[in-house]
Amino acid sequence: MNRASASPKPLTGRKVLFMLLAFFGVVICVNLTIITLASMTLPGTEVESAYTASLAYEKEIAAAREQDVRSWKVDAHLARSADGDTALEVKARDRSGKALTGLKFTGRLERPTDRRADRVIALSEVTGGVYRGSGGAVGPGQWNLVLESEADGRRLFMSRNRVVLN
């Protein structure tokens, strides 16, 4: 005897509808979760306003040319201790080797991947042409060290260097 076995639970239109709704519901939930996590971790903006940055571009070029004419020699040493505290020392000399005094130096440690981790390091002059400051606890990895100097409200020096802290 050849008997066809009957399925105990037949596939109905309701089951197919439920399976489709469940499938697309899971896909939508996963997409929303990924979008939320991505927008929280990396904002994706380099500047707040591209228009304002473009207006300042000519001033940046002029400031860079003036900086090149001054030919300052600025050396920075960034150290991270075992507990994560950072210390920054900057030595500034003019083209003839004379110490540059009376300037206001600031340093910034910028995380290339997350602006929220940026740290500002206020530097104070300890001796002629030597400026020191502490950045507090900073995690290991790649950072951009941005040094800026100003006098009389005008920026005189700016440099950006990639550093790796262990």
Automatic annotation (TrEMBL):
The protein's name: FixH family protein
Pfam families the record matches: FixH (PF05751)
InterPro entries given in the database record: FixH, FixH_proteobacterial
Sequence intervals crossing the membrane: 16-40
Keyword set, alphabetical order: Membrane, Transmembrane, Transmembrane helix
